Amino acid sequence: MPDSRSPHVSSVRARSVLTRRGLAAGVAAAVLSLGLGACGSDSDSASTDAAPAAAKAKDTVVIGAQSNGAAKETTLTVPEVAAIRAELPKSLVDSRQLVIGLGFLPAGSPPIGYIGADQKTITGSEPDLGRLIAAVFGLKPVLSNATWDNLFVGIDSGRTNVGFSNITDTEQRKEKYDFAGYRQDNLGFEVKKNDTWTFDGTAASLAGKTVAVGAGTNQEKILLKWQSDLKAQGKKLTVKYFQESNSTYLALNSGRIDAYFAPNPSVAYHVTQTANTPNATRSAGTFSGAGASLQGLICATVKKDSGLAKPLADAINYLIKNGQYAKWLAAWNLSNEALPSSQVNPPGLPLTNS
């Protein structure tokens, strides 16, 4: 599912794989229950315009289309911005399209990227942001969905112009790629809706709690560090593990655990799926996937020195200034990951982080 994103694994590469798997585990059961497939293809990649019909109207972009209840479908007005289009490489303008790389094969990763209820529309927060930026550029969005590894092969080869796939900004990746930030990279606590507890950003607020977490994930590393800190103070934090998400949520519903610590997008997705049910949940707070000392960032990712990072940041800042960005996040229940502005190559997860 995405690369969300943080510290504390043996290498940056290992970290991104583990966190991505943690987010995938959090939503895999929901994907299967909704009957959402990959792309109707057994290959490692599939390209499609995959734009909702309503988006054909000039200067409009539909977000949240075919989301199966994960988002509120919204039509936004997004005009071409000539000054930003003028920053683009001539070859991209001449192509008349922006090829957007996604890494959501084979099963999809709600809410950030998956096949919609009509079994053909690529929906999710990431492809929708790609559509919004393509509109600012005055280009046709073409979505190229692939496996995680082949997403980067596409960027490296030039087959895709930009990756929007929950990719974390890391200093290691900056050796090959340029970034334009667009979302915080956060982990989140999910609790029952009627639970009044809220995480305050410190280990102290977890004293006496029982929290579930995915084994081998970045969030587990962080949670175990908090457990160790509390133990040194004579306080207890109980950590529980379950084989899959359904068992985790059964434990939450029955009160056997107090909270589930998972990537924030998977928490946001599950909250939408349980709303108005007897097992409704809510987000009880977030924590940077990069740890206490650095806010992790999710970024648009392009080949280094391609000339696209600045236009991408300018397009994102245009969307922030004019309100479409906030509406995009709200539609996908990700408003708690908003950034005040987009920066080119902001500080990322350090090479030495482990």
From TrEMBL:
<dbReference type="InterPro" id="IPR001638">
    <property type="entry name" value="Solute-binding_3/MltF_N"/>
</dbReference>
<protein>
    <submittedName>
        <fullName>Amino acid ABC transporter substrate-binding protein, PAAT family</fullName>
    </submittedName>
</protein>
<dbReference type="Pfam" id="PF00497">
    <property type="entry name" value="SBP_bac_3"/>
</dbReference>
<keyword id="KW-0732">Signal</keyword>
<feature type="domain" description="Solute-binding protein family 3/N-terminal">
    <location>
        <begin position="97"/>
        <end position="336"/>
    </location>
</feature>
<dbReference type="InterPro" id="IPR006311">
    <property type="entry name" value="TAT_signal"/>
</dbReference>
